[in-house]
Amino acid sequence: MTEWFGVLKGLVSALAMPLPMALGLAVVGLVGLGRRFLGRLLVALALVVVVGASWVPVADRLLAPLEATYAPVFEVADPGVYAAVVVLGAGWEPDANWPAPARLNESAALRLMEGLRLLQTLPQAQLVVTGASRRAGEAPVAQGYAAAARAMGVAPERIVVLDTPTDTALEAYAVREALGAHEPFLLVTSAAHMRRAVAHFERAGLTPSPAPTHFLSGRGRPAQFSYWVPSAENLRKTERAIYEYLGLWALELDHRGRR
Q1: What's the whole-model pTM score?
Q2: pLDDT of residue 11
Q3: All structural domains of the chain
Q4: Is the dihedral of CA 16, 248, 62, 109 positive or negative?
């Protein structure tokens, strides 16, 4: 049952993305051009979906509310309180012949950078890095985090590697098992992902202190020409927002189903 739910969730999230949605509309529109008005309307709607999703005002309007849920941590108010800094998994290239930090993708590198910045102010805290591989035979990203952290001077004995969780919910339970239910910790992940991550950790009985990073919205300025030009970068931002909203919706449905 869980396996089928995972497949269904992946299918829904894939089809809800702008490109597959626009492609579906365009195909139906082209097939239905015999009914000219409806066919042209669907093709035009497909174009609007792609252009709109690739436009800064749309992408930022979708992403900004997610990223604004928790403020960034500029200084840790009470360093002695926290037992750990937890960095959630992202992506990496384990087989690339590059230095360990360069093998992390943009999201993973920024998450680890923020984790290490916070760790510097917490001399007694551990660095907990999480994340399995989603591809068979590939080394887990948690091991990539650990290698990069060691390369940047973190003592190996301060690093806790949780390399089996494949999603945020499993990461939350792995952290609870590693730290216990009552140890305070800072939670580092991308700003857009933080609302959903906190919900998973709270469901696992934990109380994380959010430390978001990798902010994507708000980088463009209306005075810049590029602000008004559709781009693949903005399309990815829209996709990120849709993915997170779908994840939050699935969490809410699951919560209602458990009542």
Answers
A1: 0.88
A2: 59
A3: 2-67+230-258 (no CATH), 79-213 (3.40.50.620)
A4: negative
